[in-house]
Amino acid sequence: MTSDMSAIKIENITKTYEKGKVLALESISLDIKRGELFGLIGPDGAGKTSLFRILTTLLLADSGKATVEAFDVVKDLWDIRKISGYMPGRFSLYQDLTIEENLNFFATVFNTTVEENYHIIKEIYVQIEPFKNRRAGKLSGGMKQKLALCCALIHEPKVLFLDEPTTGVDPVSRKEFWEMLGRLKDRGITILVSTPYMDEASRCDRIALIQKGKIMDVDTLDHILEKNYQEILGVKAANRYDLVKAINQFDNLKSCFAFGGEQHVVLNDGFKSKDEFQQFLIEKGIENLEIRVVEPDIEDVFIKLMQENSND
Amino acid sequence: MKVFLTLIKKEFWHVLRDKRSLVILLGLPIVMMLLFGFALTNEVKNSEVLILDFSKDQASQTLIDRIDHSEYFSIAGNLSSEKEIVSSFRKGKSRLAIIFPQDFQNSISHEKKAQIRLVADASDPNTANIVINYASAIIRDYQNELNEEKKLPYTINLETKMLYNPQLKSAFNFVPGVMTLIMMLLGAMMTSVSIVREKETGTMEVLLVSPMKPILVVLSKAIPYLLLCFTDIILILLMAVFVLGMTIQGSLVLLLAESILFIITTLSLGLLISTIASTQQIAMFISLVALMLPSLIFSGFMFPIENMPIPLQVISNLIPTKWYYSIVRSVMVKGLGFEYVIKPTLILIAMTLAYLFIAIKKFKIRLA
After folding, report:
1. Which end of chain B, N or C, is less surrounded by CB atoms within 10 Å?
2. From CA A79, how far away is CA A127, in angstroms rounded?
3. Within a domain: residue B254?
4. Is the domain of B187 the same as that of B315?
5. Are A112 and A152 in contact (CB under 8 A)?
6. Is residue A190 part of a domain?
């Protein structure tokens, strides 16, 4: 049985709010393996937090079934609460308690002590230990996240649920945070992490792309990129407004969207009509035109899948 | 148990570190006592009186002196015509004018009857009544003295005795009232707000995803507030005795025990509110509007319940403050023992158990 290998198994979970009016999750199924670092990637409002809350026994799904370490999220909630570590999207520790007090408090709540499990958090805790008498409300975003992670880890959970842990955190701290997650994974902890940042997908073993309560694809990043490869042109010009207007007049256009400082353009027959496209824009009077070939990344894929889904 | 102690310790940190709330918690009873004791009082002291004396004889002079020397009145001035009364009242300083007709003394000694007119500013009816009563009492005293000298054939001597509160001090009324209101406000509002705060800041979310029974979180909040409310009761009683000169007639132990019972009642109400409210504002709103207002109206502190229409009297039985207020008055003012307050005590216990039962029933082990 493959289910022995699963840490989290989700089958056809549907969740609505306001008596069925708002659809948050639409028949979601996922199978997350033990020891996997699994990323749930999608924009705000995609349904990530709802899924986390269902898995951490905080919410009940309308229909469907989910298990964490073979415990049912509805029936066995007390078992799940013993083995999971949860870090909500919002900083949810006591702002008026110091780092040390917060940590000791959560250790006691989980029937353990900081001393007993210090080895698990040591690596992370040493970074914030110099400020252990500072109140949590006065910490920087990165330090808050480290403290929250320590509190979620203090009881040595088997499964770690991290809901957007890097939102609002500076790039350096984000990088550090993902390195820490990598080391926790090496300890054998299953980690389900959500993020709106596409670039963080490369840190995960496998990812699920989620949009409007539906999972668009589940695979390793490389496979997803491979499966969804398309020939993309990066287009830049002096006047962006005119450029976008001109691009949208091109007959053979498949999609065009802003990406950093340039427009990512996909043509119906790929690079074959690149020259024709370039000629078209020059005729439209676009100045300082630059067109280059772009290697598609996860964000391109996400937009492609989004468009395919909405065309259905 | 260790978990519970840690939770209580955490609650104390919350309470003690929030200096602003702490000042309110301990300052509110003091401010309320001083307000009701000295500023918001129904007692009339040194009320200004105007005199219009057309006789200017010995009898009128004696009465005027007596009025002036009483602690309720002081003579503000002599008028020369009735027209001046209205214009003086309009200025708003005096509330009472006393008019002696011509030949006041002559009428008393020869016709055996005389008239005095009292004119009061009844724009505030309560005060006008009180002022008239005080003045009448002084005049009646004088009349009785005159009668002592010449025995009248038939007289009914009225002897009134104001039991439990001979000096009609308002402290006897408002100290139990302040105790009731403060407990209601702090007990119900502070607990419900502090529980709902955990929901609002998301800490409840983290606590729920732990093996601990979440009801412990809620119960642990009750302990610091129980202590705080008890401190407030002590503060109020100390002020009543040492600042307002009140004596506690009944057993202090009984009074404190009943107070602890009532604190537990308000804390359970706070728990109940916290299961309904989703934000701190809603919790505060429910506590203030849905609890304070009925408490104020139906406790008997502001308005006598006996005067209300029957349906309202029935409703008043559902308000816990009514019962506590009656207990405090019985014990503190009338000096009654436990056997006289068994009924309200049992009612309070029943209400508390009901609130707790519903609160625990309604308490969610999930977010929604």
Report:
1. N
2. 32
3. yes
4. yes
5. no
6. yes
Domain extent at residue A99: 2-226
Number of domains in chain A: 2
Q: What would the DSSP string read from start to end of A251-276? A: TTEEEEEEETTEEEEEETTGGGGHHH
Give a yes or no: residue B141 inside a domain. yes
Mark yes or no for CB contact B207/A109 under 8 Å.
Answer: yes
- Contact residues for A104 (Cβ-Cβ < 8 A; gap 6+): A113, A114, B6
Mark whether A238 and A140 lie in a shared domain. no
Q: Quote the pTM value.
A: 0.79
Closest CA in chain B for residue A112: B3
CATH number where B103 lies: 3.40.1710.10
Q: Tokens in use for B55?
A: 């006789």
Residue B90, pLDDT score: 84
Domain assignment of residue B111, given as a range: 47-149
Instruction: Give a yes or no: residue B164 inside a domain.
Output: no
Are A259 and A299 spatial neighbours (Cβ–Cβ below 8 Å)?
yes
Q: How far apart are CA A45 and CA A25, in angstroms?
A: 10
**Which tens digits make up the pLDDT trace of B315-368?**
889 999 999 999 998 998 888 999 999 999 999 999 999 999 998 888 888 887
Residue B343: its pLDDT value, please?
95
Candidate from A86, A101, A108 with C-beta closest to B206: A86
CB contact under 8 A, A97 and B367: no
| Residue A143, domain CATH | 3.40.50.300
Q: How high is the mean pLDDT of chain B?
A: 87
Nearest to B210 among A81, A94, A97 (CB): A81
pLDDT digits (tens, 9 = 90+) for A178-209: 999 999 999 999 999 999 888 888 899 999 99
Q: Which of residues 25-54 of A touch B (CB under 8 A)?
A: 53
pLDDT tens-digit map of A292-303: 998 888 888 888
